[in-house]
Amino acid sequence: MTGRTTVSRERAERATLVDVALAAQVSRQTVSNVLNNPGKVSPATAAKVRFEIDRLNFRPNLAARSLRQRKANALGIELNATGRHRLGNIQDSFLVELTVAAREQDAHIITFAVEDYLEPISEYERLLATQMVSGFVLTNTRHDDPRPAWLRAHEVPFVSFGQVWDDPAFTAWADVDGGSGIAQGVRHLVAQGYAPIGYLGWPPGSPVGDDRRSGWVSATTDLGIHDPALQEVPPQDLPAAAAAVRSLLERVGNGGAIVCASDTLAFIAFQVMRDQGQRPGTDIGLIGFDDTDFAQEFGLTSVQQPLAEIAQTLLTYLTGAESGAVAPSRGVLFDPAVIPRRSTDHRSTDRARPAHKPVTTDPAGSRTQDGDSS
Amino acid sequence: MTGRTTVSRERAERATLVDVALAAQVSRQTVSNVLNNPGKVSPATAAKVRFEIDRLNFRPNLAARSLRQRKANALGIELNATGRHRLGNIQDSFLVELTVAAREQDAHIITFAVEDYLEPISEYERLLATQMVSGFVLTNTRHDDPRPAWLRAHEVPFVSFGQVWDDPAFTAWADVDGGSGIAQGVRHLVAQGYAPIGYLGWPPGSPVGDDRRSGWVSATTDLGIHDPALQEVPPQDLPAAAAAVRSLLERVGNGGAIVCASDTLAFIAFQVMRDQGQRPGTDIGLIGFDDTDFAQEFGLTSVQQPLAEIAQTLLTYLTGAESGAVAPSRGVLFDPAVIPRRSTDHRSTDRARPAHKPVTTDPAGSRTQDGDSS
DNA sequence: TTGTAGGCGTTATCAG
DNA sequence: CTGATAACGCCTACAA
Predict the structure, then answer these.
(1) Domains defined for chain B, CATH in brackets
(2) B157-206, pLDDT tens digit by residue?
(3) Could you say which of A66, A136, B41, B302 would form a disulfide bridge with B63 (CB–CB 3.0 to 4.6 Å)?
């Protein structure tokens, strides 16, 4: 019995490792082994210990474990606080998937924000120094991103959702193959009978945008239907974008379709079409990217990123690093999937009519319940 | 010198309290006091200690502190993993604000998800038992919510974004005054010259929905322009909603306006209007609720919730509870604000035209930077 | 296979 | 106001 006898145990204190050891009539070491080194203890005693663990509802104190092991059991993720959430920003869904994946690896996710977007390191350093986290999950990586270099220099474990551009030697990243997603969209449209297929994207220069556009180029070229004139890459300005869309719609014409680099762009097209009395799907096919809520709500076919898979993969790198498993020899690109909806349904009237069957069917909705559509 | 001499300090270890004490030639206790009990130490030594703290870049190990104090320095927040994010769900923005507010109180936010929506307690219990968190921030409270009662019974600190319905004695919650928000919307529309003012909402029965509808009733009644016939509360079904909207638009007529219980509903109206060749703003005014990205993007006037303020207030309850400050005698309702955009601008053509001046101005955009509009 | 001893870095208690 | 002593609960040697 330790000095605990002096401290009166008031209401509902938690059982500790010692309590379990006492109850199971073994040393506290054995209990620890049952948890961390199963195999180093005989099945008989292990069973006895487990029984007591359950009976006493013992849970290892993670603060103590963290202190002893000199490493936290949590990962940090920087939230983009530099603006309200932007359309199609899948960061939020990713966070959910990351949280779920972390749970499976007995890790936790700690959110944080940096004050100065250009000087994020101090916050990373603080979290590490205080032993709140043992590593990080990066998102929104960019060119001249100071984070990867700093983390590597300090031997901090981290992974990245999004390619780490400046450091080819770093391979623990995963990203979505945007080009493939757009290409799938093109093929889906062609299979649905639309032609020709135009492209609506962003101005050249951004890696993501260029990647997506390349998917349109390659897919249409493969199919022998490439026409360089059928694209628009307007600046970030609604009126200008709307004008570009109007022009593109005209060139594509009824029976044709447009793949867009984002749901936002697709919705601009959506609006413009309705202005002109054209029916998305019926008259002209339309595909967005990111499968946002709005796409689901309004029947826009969209390209969906496999966020759960990505989150799981990334965390495997992070926790597996200890167990010998290391990151792959190069970053991984995940294939997104086209979620078909009314906007690529030729026969759809896209009008108020009861959704008979697959019209509103949504594969992603399988996890949905609850009804507050706020 | 402790037994540390036996352990060779390899690369870049962090300075500990002892290191600082040694350097400042005081006891480690004094260093601890400088941090936690300022005032119990003389200014002279305090300065000396602080100097060494800075010089050695000392940061208290939070795991050790947590262990010693038997309380974590983090709060848990349950993410809704029961479906992809829904339109207008402001949970994500709230999380960002919460993270920022927590930073100011030297706390951290830990996300988690529950496997079974109806049986969430076990996860709350686990987080508490492992001392990962010392309290919780509840969201999406509902009737027959098992969480508040359980947390109270176990004397776990928690606050709630959203009223806790089942327990009038619990007052540490904050919510948005939806009725006031809608009422403000009505007054804004009237001030802009629109009449009459219709309402588009959800079927009766939900507290949030009923609250918002009441704002329309009271505001129009106050202004002497109430007409019970000018409302629609369609079910959650796009075609049905569209039909209802068409009917409502007809009754309201050109020059009138509609306040909506959500941006989603507003967008349905948006679409229907364009189908019929009506211009939002120019012909009929339109206001949404939640100020989502889409509202910002497409010029929809919307009611914005003061999430930052709410997050700060809630965390004050939680951390202030120790310092004597307790929750108020009753929950707090925050007033949202109308963010005017083109959809309530009579003179707007809502057409492709260069955004001369305030057309795209967005108060919320002041914190925006970066340009990936994905 | 099991038990013993010690310390991770911090703060609380109590004596000077 | 300062300094010594004792835990917080766990894990990692090492010895039996």
Answers:
(1) 2-60 (1.10.260.40), 68-176+308-334 (3.40.50.2300), 178-306 (3.40.50.2300)
(2) 999 999 998 888 899 999 999 999 999 999 999 999 999 999 999 999 88
(3) A66
